[in-house]
Design brief:
Strand content of chain A: 15-25%
CATH architecture of the largest domain in chain A: 2-Layer Sandwich
Radius of gyration of chain B: 23 Å
Shape of chain A: globular
Oligomer: heterodimer
Largest sheet of chain A: 6 strands, mixed
CATH topology of the largest domain in chain A: Nucleotidyltransferase, domain 5
Number of strands of chain B: 0
Helix content of chain B: 55-70%
Strand content of chain B: under 5%
Number of strands of chain A: 26
Radius of gyration of chain A: 28 Å
Number of domains of chain B: 2
Number of helices of chain B: 8
Number of helices of chain A: 18
Chain lengths: ~625, ~220
């Protein structure tokens, strides 16, 4: 393998995916179950081992107190932010949680921070990719909602680090989608990306110009998505049940999860069916039955999907564009499958939206494109460059509790602003700076990012020091601050107290906790997988030897194959997975002609180039699943 | 001038030198610039300076790329906008736009004094009438009344103010030409320059006054 593969990851509220550029095309890497989507569900099994994805969905219903979903909603947030979420989601906070502390969620009797739970999902994706490449994966591009603030971005980056991934770039989801779209279309023009996912909504307006993807404006709501529709339907069902059966199930986690599953299925059906019947078995042997028509459903969800209108209009206004000036509207996110959403988009932008892309996969595919660009590019991406913006204005608190905006929203990133500070009293050594994010006038209405203490200002008379503070938003949308006292030329020390989020030391600790045995685990897994593959190809060869085709080989060819077979058998007994793989590749090459001969002449031409273990050998041993068993805990 | 951002022999990104935004684009400090050309240069420089395209470089180069690219974005954002460009040039010339400056606002807030807001003389009558109507509107709102003709009147004033702002922009552009011509001449023309600067400051202040007024009107109408 040449350079290390950099993967693109869509860490979604509902589902997560990992993709990479295979030659000139981005492709999704399936999990060991063969499915592209890994549900963003994490559970602990009876031995306190983490279970992730499809296998954890069962746990969600059977042992809801040991499982968690939609953790993305809690990334980078504080206790006081999530009161509303707690009413709607079965998040169980740690009992000893202090205000100002990073949230911790209970799974069974253990507690995890949101970045740690996200890291478990990322680690699963990392493993899926490692199995696919048969090599380690340490670098990734991860997507985030465009409207994520600094704390939410930082939390996502922390999750990557905890999972053992170097996060080369955080890319905004709608922008990533535009990369996948643009790679395909290669047309200049102005596009709008309408991204309504499981938990977040984003709209971005971009100018595509000869491979440059320039975001002009972005807007959104980080708490708006399919989850809200689910919660509405669940609430209605619970009310129905309470009213009709006099049965209050709101505290019954298992029943709520069963209802949740049923309403999600109903929601999906209603995108294609005129009506759907809900049928849920309730505790005590009763059943909850209810028919919902498309019309009723659309009425119910109207207020939710109408919440996307404001951000779209604001984005158009910020871009200084009229709907007619948009050349194409690209739909992203599973919730854009809802016909009513499509109608709304059509009304907003005065055109039929572009629906050719798979709304579940396009973000991950775009992340893979960006990973490829960061890795040095390829023929397909060599001209591509993404110029993204910061979604929220950056400000500092000034006298009177007012926000002074120093970097406006929709500024192309990286962006910077230099501010000067001085002292109020003689000999003052520290200056406190409060950094905010948001559009409101009052500091108390904006999001507090961090408080900085400029320390070690040389003693001077009041008003004399001139401290230059540089605020820089990097290409990930994350803020960096540096300071220098200009009169003395001394670098001022900056002490950061992130208002929300983990300290570097905390993140380090989490990495060590979960990755003590990462290297050894990886090696062992590779050996097992290589041996499985070796067994398959050896069995296929045995089968081939009994076929008529074997007779058509020259004595020399047979001798060569026998030799390679012996080599493989020998290394298979050892623990060196790379040697096993090498021997497998050699044998595959050596048996190429045998495989061809075994085909029916009529189809052989069509299958030229196939190797031994890809050839369908009729009743022979089945071809190995490309993704053998995953978890090796 | 622009070559300084890259190594001449290897083409790699170099550390940023402290330059003004005009020099960053290799431009003289002129105001009547072609935004289409500026955009083309911005794209071309982005293709060389952006961190994404230097992600495989050493950590020192990556840092320079981040700084250079943020400087490029800051410069482009300022220069492509006619008002920001003019304000920036005036600042380079040492002009503090007093009425709208942050320090003035903060001072006014701290002392409780009313900020010195000069109503442009040609707007006195219009502003007076508009203020009366806005007061009436807020009274009506308190009483729960809705006078459609009043709202229409206010909207008409607003439209007039907005078109006034358009013509101010045209006026500003004519001063750009004066300024640019003075740059081409030798530095001896400093008197003429000072005159042009005064005129530009005056237009910007008037424009700013109207913009704030329009913002207040919009807020009142939306309430």
């Amino acid at each position: 393998m040449a350079a290390e593969n950099i993967v693109g990851i869509d860490l979604g509220t509902t589902n997560s995916l990992v993709a990479f550029m295979q030659g000139e095309t981005p492709v999704v890497i399936p999990g060991d179950d063969g499915l592209n989507l890994v549900p963003s569900v994490v559970a602990l099994d009876q031995n306190n081992q983490p279970v992730i994805g499809n296998s954890a969905r069962k746990n969600l219903i059977e042992t809801p107190e040991r499982a968690v979903y939609s953790i993305k909603r809690l990334m980078g947030r504080g206790v006081e932010d999530i009161r509303e979420e707690l009413k709607l989601f079965p998040f169980r906070l740690a009992d000893d949680l202090q205000t100002g502390e990073v949230l911790r969620i209970k799974l069974g009797d253990k507690t995890f921070t949101p970045p740690e739970i996200s890291a478990l999902i990322l680690r699963q994706l990392k493993r899926n990719a490692e199995r696919y490449f048969a090599g380690p994966v340490t670098k990734a591009v991860i997507t985030v909602p465009a409207y994520f603030n600094d704390a939410q971005r930082q939390a996502t980056k922390d999750a990557g680090r905890i999972a053992g991934l170097e996060v080369l770039r955080l890319v905004n989801e709608p922008t990533a989608a535009s990369l996948a779209y643009g790679l395909d279309k290669k047309e200049n023009g102005i596009i709008a990306v309408y991204d309504l996912g499981g938990g977040t909504f984003d709209v971005s307006i971009l100018k595509l110009h000869d491979g440059i993807f320039e975001v002009i404006a972005t807007n959104g709501d980080t708490h708006l998505g399919g989850d809200d529709i689910d919660n509405l339907l669940i609430t209605i069902a619970l009310d129905d049940i309470r009213g009709d059966l006099n049965l209050d199930l709101r505290r019954n986690a298992e029943a709520v999860q069963a209802i949740r599953k049923a309403v999600i299925d109903a929601k999906i059906s209603l995108s294609s069916q005129p009506s759907v019947k809900l049928d849920v078995e309730l505790p005590g042997g009763k059943r909850y039955l209810r028919e919902i028509t498309r019309e009723q459903y659309e009425q119910l969800i109207q207020p939710i999907i109408d919440r996307t209108v404001g951000p779209c209009k604001q984005a158009l206004k910020d871009a200084n564009l009229k709907p007619e000036q948009i050349d194409e509207v690209v739909l992203v996110g599973g919730s854009t499958r809802i016909p009513k959403v499509r109608t709304l988009v059509k009304e907003l932008f005065h055109r039929e939206p572009h629906t050719d892309l798979n709304p579940d996969e396009v973000v991950a595919l775009g992340a893979a494109v960006q990973a490829n660009i960061l890795g040095g590019g390829s023929e397909a991406t060599q001209n591509m460059l993404l110029l993204d913006v910061t979604p929220l204005s950056l400000g500092i608190e000034v006298a009177g509790g007012v926000t002074d905006k120093i970097i406006l929203r929709n500024s192309t990133i990286p962006a910077s602003s230099t501010q000067f500070y001085t002292t109020q009293v003689d000999g003052q050594a520290n200056v406190a700076i409060h950094v905010l994010q948001g559009e409101r006038e009052l500091a108390s209405d904006c999001r507090s990012l961090a408080r900085f203490d400029l320390k070690g200002i040389p003693p001077m008379a009041a008003g004399i020091p001139r401290v230059e503070v540089k605020f820089l938003i990097d290409a990930n949308g994350i803020l960096h601050v540096s300071a220098r006292e200009q009169r003395s030329g001394k670098e001022a020390e900056i002490q950061v107290q992130p208002s929300y989020g983990l300290t570097d030391e905390q993140v380090e600790g989490m990495i060590l906790d979960s990755f003590d045995n990462a290297e050894e685990d990886f090696r062992r897994r590779q050996v097992i997988e290589a041996r499985n593959e070796a067994a398959t190809i050896l069995a296929a060869l045995e089968k081939g030897k009994k076929s008529a085709a074997w007779g058509q080989l020259t004595t020399d060819e047979k001798k060569q194959i026998a030799k390679m077979e012996k080599v493989l058998a020998a290394v298979n007994a050892e623990d060196d997975y790379q040697a096993i793989r090498k021997a497998i590749d050699a044998l595959n090459q050596g048996t190429m002609r045998l495989a061809e001969l075994m085909m029916d002449t009529a189809v052989s031409s069509a299958l030229k180039g196939k190797t031994m273990d890809e050839t369908d050998l009729g009743e022979g041993p089945t071809a190995p699943h490309p993704m053998a068993k995953a978890e090796f805990e | 001038m622009r070559a300084a951002r890259f190594c001449e022999s290897c083409g790699k990104v170099q550390p940023p030198a402290p330059v003004d935004y005009f020099s960053f684009f290799g431009l003289p400090p002129k105001l009547d610039l072609d935004v289409a050309t500026l955009e083309k240069d911005f794209y071309e420089l982005s293709r060389r300076l952006h961190p994404d395209l230097n992600a495989q470089a050493g950590s020192q180069e990556q840092e320079w790329s981040l700084e250079q690219s943020s400087l490029l974005n800051d410069a482009y954002r300022t220069l492509r906008d006619p008002i920001k460009r003019t304000q920036y040039l005036l600042r380079l010339e040492g002009v503090e736009l007093e009425e709208q400056s942050k320090t003035a606002t903060e001072q006014a807030r701290a002392t409780g004094e009313v900020k010195r807001q000069i109503v442009p003389p040609d707007l006195l009558e219009e502003v007076f009438e508009l203020n009366m109507q806005l007061e009436e509107l807020s009274m009506n709102k308190k009483m729960g009344e809705n006078d459609a003709s009043l709202t229409d009147e206010i909207k008409k004033h607003k439209d007039a103010l907005e078109s006034k702002n358009e013509s101010l922009l045209k006026e500003l552009q004519s001063y750009w030409k004066e300024w640019d011509a003075s740059i081409d001449r030798s530095p001896a023309a400093s008197d003429a320059r000072a005159g042009t600067i005064r005129k530009m400051v005056d237009v910007l202040n008037r424009r700013n006054y109207i913009r704030n007024l329009v913002r207040d009107v919009n807020a009142a109408l939306e309430e």
